[in-house]
Amino acid sequence: MFQKPASAPNVGWAFMFGITAILGSWGSGTLGQSDWTRYAKRRFAPTLSQLIASPLTIAATATIGIIVTSASRDVMGGEIEWNPIYLLADIQDFYGSSPGVRAAVFFASIGMVFSQFSISVVLNSVSCGMDMAGLWPRYINIRRGGYIMACVGIAVQPWQLLSTAEKFLSVLSGFGVFMAPATGIMLADYHIVRKHKLKIGDLYAGDSSSIYWFADGVNWRAFVAFLAGVWPLIPGLVATVNSYSEDEWTGWIRLYNLTFLIGLAMSFIVFWMLSYVFPPPGLGQESPFSGDEILYGVSKLDDTKEPKVQGEKEKQTACSSV
Fold it and tell me: What would the pLDDT profile of 171-200 be if each residue is shown by its tens digit?
C-alpha cells in the first residue's frame, strides 16, 4: 500500500502537478473566505482555524482517500478504483450484496450525499449568493444568488469532469490558472500597495466619491496583471486536457505544472509595478474596522448626524416614547 513505485515518467514534475491541483481546487475558497471572516468579532479571529484546522483536515482527508483506495485494491484485487461512488458499487458486488454490505454502502452513500450538500450550500451557494447580492442588490439577494448558482452548476454538467482520474486532476489544476493570478493581485494590493490600510466606508460606496472607484469603477491595473498571470499557463492547460504529446509541449506543460506558483507570482509582480508607476487614488487613507462611523454611517464625534440604519431610527423612537 505504501511502497508502490511511481509510474510517472518524471516524478518531480508529477509531484508539482499534484500540489498545483490541490492549490487550484482550494483557490476559490481562499478568495471567498472574506465572505465568512467578515462576521468575526475580532480582527485575527480566523487565524487559528486557517493556520491549523484547514491544513490538517485537508491533509487527513487526502491521506485517508489514498489509504482506502490502496486497501480496496489489495482486498478485492483488480485495478485501483479512485472514484468513491464506483468503489462502493465494487464493494457491494465483491461481498455478494449481503444485507450487511448493503447497509454499509447505504450509510456510506448517505454520508457522501450529506457532505456534498453541506459543501455546495455553505461553500458554494451561500458565498456565491453573497457576491451576487453585492453585485446587484436591487434585484438579487443571497437566496436568489444561490438559485442562480445552482442552475449554472447543473448547466455545466460537472459529472463529465469525473469520468477519469486524469481529467479530474486536470480540471482541479485548471482552476489555479484563474485563481492564482486573482490571489496574487489581492495579496499585492493589500500587503504591498496599500500597506494594510483600507477605508472601510468607501468599499461600499458605488460612485466616484469612493477612492476605490478608479476609472468608472474599473481598476485597469488589476485586469492587466490578471491577463499577465493567465496567458502563459493557457497553452499548458490545453495540452494537458487534450493529452498532447509531451515531446512537443514539454516547456508549456511543465510551466503549467507550476500553475499556482507562477500565476500568483507574475500577477503579484505586474500589479505591484503598475501600481508603483501609476499609483491608484487614496493610498495611505484608512478608517477603523469597527465603530459607529462604519456600522451606522455616523461618526462618534458627530451626534448631530442622523443614523442611516432603520433599526437605529426605530430604537431611538422607542426610547423617546418611553
Answer: 766 777 888 899 899 999 999 999 989 888
CB 305 within 8 A of CB 246: no
CA dihedral 82, 87, 93, 99 (to 10 degrees): 160
Q: Do residues 183 and 229 lie in contact, with contact meaning Cβ atoms separated by under 8 Å?
A: no
Question: Is there a contact between 225 and 274 (Cβ–Cβ < 8 Å)?
Answer: yes
Q: What pLDDT does residue 291 have? A: 52
Whether the pLDDT of residue 125 is over 70: the answer is yes
- 292 to 6, 19, 39, 84, 302: CA distances (angstroms): 60, 44, 16, 51, 10
- Indicate if the alpha-carbon torsion angle 202, 203, 207, 212 is positive or negative: positive
Name which of 168, 134, 130, 172 is nearest 149 in CA terms: 130
φ, ψ (nearest 5 deg) of residue 4: -70, 125
Nearest Cα residue to 176 out of 15, 16, 20, 18 = 20
Q: Which of 54, 80, 86 is nearest to 67 (CA)?
A: 80
Q: pLDDT over 70 for what percent of the chain?
A: 83
d(CA 116, CA 316): 45
Name every residue whose Cβ is closer than 8 Å to that of residue 217 and which is 6 or more positions away in sequence: 206
> Which residues touch 33 (CB under 8 Å, ≥6 apart)?
46, 50
| SS3 category, 294 | helix
Where residue 290 falls among pLDDT bands split at 50, 70, 90? low
CA neighbours within 13 Å on the CB side: how many for 76?
Answer: 20
Instruction: Report the distance separating Cα 162 and Cα 158, nearest Å.
Output: 7
> In this predicted model, what pLDDT tens digit does every residue of 17-75 receive, in sequence order?
778 777 777 776 777 677 777 778 887 888 887 888 878 888 898 888 888 888 888 88
- Grid coordinates in use for 281? 487614488
The amino acid at residue 207 is: D
Distance of CA 121 to the CA centre of its chain: 14
